[in-house]
Amino acid sequence: MKRALISVYDKTGIVDFAKELKGLGWQIISTGGTYKELKSNGIEVVEIEDITGFPEILEGRVKTLNPYIHGGILYKRDSQDHVNTIDDMNIGPIDMVVNNLYPFEDTVKDQNSTHDDIIENIDIGGPSMIRAAAKNYKYVSVIVDPADYEKVLDELKAYGDTRLETRLYLARKVFNYTAYYDFLISKYFNSLDNVDFPEYLTLGYRLKSKLRYGENPHQNAAFYIKPYPVEGSISKAKQLHGKELSFNNLNDGDAALAAVKEYHEPTIVAVKHTNPCGIGSGKDLLEAYKKAYECDRESIYGGIIAANREIDKDVAEEISKIFIEVIIAPSFTDEALEILTKKKNIRLLEVGQLIVDKDEMDFKNISGGILLQNKDVVQLLDDLQIVTDRKPTDVEVEDLLFAWKAARSVKSNGVVIAKNKATIGIGLGEVNRFWAVENAIKRAGDKVAGSVLASDGFFPFKDSIEILGKAGVTAIIQPGGSIRDEEVIEEANKHNIAMIFTGVRHFKH
User: Fold this and answer.
1) pLDDT at residue 339, as a whole number
2) Euclidean distance between CA atoms 106 and 264, whole angstroms
């Protein structure tokens, strides 16, 4: 008689599965709550201690860690030595293990959980059993996902056993499952010891969706989400309308969201290829959108828009005048949805409250490894270092701080020219800061006079200041720290430009 050991925390579908197994002539062994669940539903089941000859002890911490269990799972059916040992010790075979683990992830996520609660939800016996069964997949079926019950039952009915390729598939799922589970535990213990960079780095993500293709059509891609994503993230977004999100939609959408979270007043960020092509803040979202649109009327076409306020009817009507790929917002009014959903190709993402995840890490792939760093979430200090003869006016300070936030979202070398809390010229991705400044001035056009500029890095030479002064820029904010700072300051004074040093660089390569 074939024997299955069933011990699951998630009992979805387990009663029906066990009934089908019994109908196929299997004996079922079980533990604790699963035993009670099956028994109460009229299923004949053998309690684990009747197999081991040993009761559950230590409040259930020890129940399956026993040779009568692991011997029955791990022995090689085609090894006469193994078979003889099993027979001599009167250990019965276990041909199937059905198990899913204590809810460690959910326990950590629950803010009411104590440290002791979390520790008690570290499963020991479960991982041992399913790893043993997966190791011995040539002979043993192991199920950790209720979605696989039907597949296994179909094969048992058709062939009398699962196929080898199915057992390999089930074993693969086990090792992915336990690797993720162990990652969650190591992440928790690293947090207890305030360790950002452990000796061994393990990453754990869940598959959310497979994508049509990656950055380019010839690349395969998928979307994975991390444990415990914060509200206001792409990972937790609810898609209200539109076709499937692409790799570039998700990547650009994340960049737009990160940028708009910088601002507290009503703000719109328009993004193209992960770079902002327009940012505007205003007394309301409609004014903010118009400012963002006016920065670059061409590049915004087919781009992505992120808002830090609810999208209402007026804003929706204005946006609907052009083609936008994705709109991301905390929420949408019913009137806005009625307007925007008339466009088949637009994607609408509702993300809820915008929260900055200050614990998130930043990864960059390099050949043979990865680089890991804390996210750049440094906030500008209130005590600004004014280094020029002329102090900036209150209006200039407001625009400088606006532009400084915008510059943090621009790929380096990056500069932003702004006026009236709106970007009017953005220079980005240049290998030379002077070229970035030139491009920003050119894009600002005749609006540049009376504007301010923010730079993500210091100015290595005074040449950028010279052309900014001639263009009519009146104030600059930058990190400072160049060996030629004195020359830069002198040039600013020459053009009556007010300049602020922040002491903080915001490179984004």
Assistant:
1) 96
2) 32
CA 212 to chain centre: 19
* Rounded Cα–Cα distance for residues 467 and 389 (Å): 19
Query: CA 61 to CA 122: how far, in whole Å?
Result: 10
Q: What is the DSSP pairing of strand 304-307 with strand 326-329? A: parallel
Cα–Cα distance, 295 to 279 (Å, whole number): 8
- CATH fold of 385-501 reads Cytidine Deaminase; domain 2 (3.40.140)
CB atoms within 10 A of CB 42: 9
Sign of the torsion formed by the C-alpha atoms of 299, 300, 303 and 307: positive
pLDDT at 176: 96
Q: What is the mean pLDDT of each run of 10 residues along the chain (509 residues)?
A: 93 95 94 91 91 78 83 92 90 94 93 93 93 97 97 95 97 96 95 92 93 94 92 93 95 95 95 95 97 94 96 96 96 97 94 88 90 80 86 96 94 95 94 94 95 95 96 96 96 97 88
Determine contact, residues 271/306, Cβ cutoff 8 Å: yes
- Angle separating helix axes 463-471 and 433-444, nearest 10 degrees: 10
By DSSP bridging, strand 96-100 and strand 3-8 are parallel
Would you please indicate which residues are annotated as catalytic (active-site) residues? Answer: 135, 273
Q: Are 410 and 443 in contact (CB under 8 A)?
A: no
Kindly give, in sequence order, each residue whose CB lies less than 8 Å from that of residue 82, ignoring residues fewer than 6 positions away.
Answer: 75, 76
Of the candidates 117, 480, 194, 498, the one whose C-alpha atom is nearest the C-alpha of residue 359 is: 194
Tokens of 172: 């693969």
Hunting for tokens 């019994």 — which residue is that?
A: 22
Count of Cβ atoms closer than 10 Å to residue 506 Cβ: 21
Q: Give the separation between CA 76 and CA 333, rounded to whole angstroms.
A: 63
Residue type, 128: S
Q: By three-state DSSP, how is residue 50 classified?
A: helix
**What pLDDT, on a 0 to 100 scale, did the predictor assign at position 419?**
97
pLDDT at position 359 is 80
Quick check: helix, strand or coil at residue 54?
A: coil
Helix/strand/coil (H/E/C) assignment for every residue in 435-481: HHHHHHHHHHHHHCCCCEEEECCCCCCCHHHHHHHHHCCCEEEECCC
What is the number of alpha carbons within 13 Å of residue 137 lying toward its C-beta? 19
In this prediction, residue 470 carries a pLDDT of: 96
Q: Where in the chain is the domain with CATH 3.40.140.20?
A: 242-350, 385-501
Sequence ranges of the chain with CATH classification 3.40.50.1380: 3-192
Residue 31 CB coordination number (10 Å): 23
**CATH superfamily of the 3-192 domain:** Methylglyoxal synthase-like domain (3.40.50.1380)
- CATH fold group of domain 242-350: Cytidine Deaminase; domain 2 (3.40.140)
Give the Å distances, CA to CA, from 69 to 52, 99, 151: 7, 14, 25
